[in-house]
């Protein structure tokens, strides 16, 4: 199954931690975000787990990383329900990003399998593990690039990995 990609124009994700408002206002916003995302996703066939989920907050203003994660909570809950999993299921990896633009939310869900070209990252304690599945010809091409170039850029399934060769300095 191929990736699912949707955009929800006008859906605003805000910093819940910094929103000093009445609890009913927060609850209403949470319900709206969850319902809108859920209604849009219902029209699509959910890929089976394991998968990689990206939620992108599009706004003219930026949030710091901890508030960014919290702002996507209700959309994440809707995506997890659509996938038929709990949002802490280890078969699903979650990433929240942001970019500048007109207010919207973008959701990208990519199936993950060792049988298809793709990539995913997981956090294991202090380690970020990046896994990539390449074809034999892609692996060969990457090996050649690594030998021939001091910097190699690899883009795959929403990941961009730049590999540099360390330079030694003489005193």
- The number of helical elements comes to 4
Compute the gyration radius: what is it?
Answer: 19 Å
Distance between the termini: 55 Å
Q: Looking across the biggest beta sheet, what order are the strands in? A: 1-4-2-3
Give me the strand/helix succession. EHEHHEEEEHEE
Summarize the amount of helix as a percent range: 25-40%
Please characterize this protein's 3D structure.
By secondary structure, this protein is α+β, with helices and mostly antiparallel strands. The protein has helices at 23-42, 65-71, 73-83, 136-148, and strands at 4-9, 51-59, 92-100, 104-111, 118-124, 127-133, 151-156, 159-164. The strands form three sheets. It has a four-stranded mixed sheet, covered by helices on one side. The chain has a two-stranded antiparallel ribbon with strand order 5-6. A two-stranded antiparallel sheet has the order 7-8. The chain is globular and about 60 Å long.
